[in-house]
Design the sequence.
């Protein structure tokens, strides 16, 4: 009984995003990652596959027990920057400007600047070569920047759009 109480207490201490829950009926802790009960009920894939989790070095063909969320933050690169507009001589953040990333004339990705005029496009392969980022605002025109992506992510700095009105 002491072991069951300890396990129940641990499920209260370790509810990491509901990863461990207490099964009152069976009096045992359960981890969501196994999903055996859902697979028994006919689900085709475990939830871990539906959440976009990744394994480290899938190319070696092992059967890992550890899955990572946002692994691309460590294994891939991103490009980011800030977009501002000049309105009556004052620099303002360019919210909702459209950002297009292209390589060899083909669109790779698209983003929109946030309320601070910032954008980020991620999941780019390291050392993947030459890119062009184009920023377009219906009110303030457009601007482009070119860069080469090496083995590190790239910050393009501040891109300034002039008042087109």
Sequence:
């Amino acid at each position: 009984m002491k072991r069951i109480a300890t396990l129940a207490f641990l499920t209260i201490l370790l509810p990491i995003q509901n990863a461990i829950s207490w099964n009152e009926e069976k009096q045992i802790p359960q981890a969501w990652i196994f999903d055996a009960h859902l697979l028994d009920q006919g689900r085709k894939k475990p939830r871990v596959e539906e959440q976009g989790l990744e394994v480290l070095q899938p190319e070696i063909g092992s059967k890992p027990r550890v899955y990572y969320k946002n692994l691309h933050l460590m294994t891939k690169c991103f490009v980011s920057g800030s977009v501002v507009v000049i309105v009556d001589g004052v620099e303002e953040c360019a919210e909702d400007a459209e950002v297009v990333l292209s390589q060899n004339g083909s669109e790779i990705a698209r983003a929109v600047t946030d309320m601070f005029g910032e954008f980020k496009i991620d999941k780019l392969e390291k050392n993947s070569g030459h890119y062009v980022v184009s920023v377009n605002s219906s009110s303030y025109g457009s601007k482009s920047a070119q860069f080469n992506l090496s083995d590190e992510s790239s910050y393009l700095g501040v891109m300034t759009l002039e008042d087109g009105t």
Q: What stands out?
A: The longest helix spans residues 2-13. The two ends are 76 Å apart (CA to CA).
